[in-house]
Design goal:
four-stranded antiparallel sheet; single chain; 291 residues
Length: 291
Amino acid sequence: MLTVRAPATSANLGSGFDVFGAALERPADVVRVERAEETTIEMSGAGSEFIPEDPEKNTAGAVAKALDAPARIKIDKGVRPASGLGSSAASAAGAALALNELYDRGLSRSELVPIAAEGEALVSGEAHEDNVAPALLGGFTIAAEDGVTRVDASLPLVVCLPDIVVSTRDARRVVPDTAPVEDVVDTVGRAATLTVGMHRDDPEMVGRGMEDRIVTPARAELINGYDQVREAALEAGATGVTVSGAGPGVIAACYASDRRAIAGAMLDAFDDVGVESRAYQTRIGDGATIH
């Protein structure tokens, strides 16, 4: 048996819709694989009752098929589905790394990214690399048509996950088809600022770069209490706040010394609108690891 720990991820980060992603130090999935004649999947952990164990409908099953690597796959979910924290990507990335090693396929992590993305397409409907890239490569990643660029960042973060379900498909439906030129220009500037901030591990620059006038406002409306939570986090010291991935997770950039206060403020703000939540004091971390 081979075991892989695959991290949660946060995509978009405000200004980088379908492009930016970051691996989180915590939470994470644990994926265990064993060679078998045919693929079977066993799920446990957070929200596992909502994830199909049929290999034809499971991200890990799709990866096993793509790699021609049948296996008994056991996934202990630390990343809740429909969280905006790359739950399906963690399972797909973990399975890809584990099966590549188990069957000695010899593929690099970069070569595994599109394979894991095809697995995640079962959930989102499209093969996006913004979550699977950081899940495999770690750090901050920029997924473009001509490949993935990785930045070795370790920025402190707080992620608050409310007890609300926002499906990736629903979150994609609310994204506007068009945007004013001035909003596009502003977003490009923000994205450039965030990228430089990641290179420097600069919370102030990353926070400014998280601002977004196009996608985030539409998705924020799906999250009860978002505006209050964002304001509370900023007042507690966050340098920037945005929706994590498709939501409902809310992510804040900050200094390490402010993480505890920010986490408490975000929890209290969700509680004030009658929403239970949990917070992770985390940072940008490594990609999937073999144990």
